[in-house]
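Q: I have 130 residues here and want to know how they pack in 3D. Can you give me a structure?
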Amino acid sequence: MSTIPDDLSYTKEHEWVAGIEDGLTVTVGITAYAAEQLGDVVYVEVHSEVGSTVAAGDAVGEVESTKSVSDIFAPVGGEVVEINSAVVDNPSLVNSDPYGEGWLFRVRVEEEPEDLLSAAEYTALTSGES
């Protein structure tokens, strides 16, 4: 399994969240673990549009791979301010750079996210899965 960055927060649904410290806008993607489990990602769609409001836990899109289709869930609530068009045009970025160029969308948060995991907690979660 690939390295799990310490400076991100994680969900049990295998999304990562960056930028919580600034209190305004966070970046969301899926983890390397999820990308490895999915296999080669061939399609990414974010259903939510820029300017729309999402609630934590909402299904906001989907990722399709050679193995399956998985929903993308919003780990935080707020206003969608950007969708990564590069990953929509080149879905393989989810596999090749999940914590960098493979990010999915950005949200201006309404409140501090709850129920996010630290890198250590996410490592423990994924170590128990096969």
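Q: Anything worth noting?
A: Residues 9-111 form a domain with the OB fold (Dihydrolipoamide Acetyltransferase, E2P) fold (CATH 2.40.50.100). The chain has a mean pLDDT of 90.
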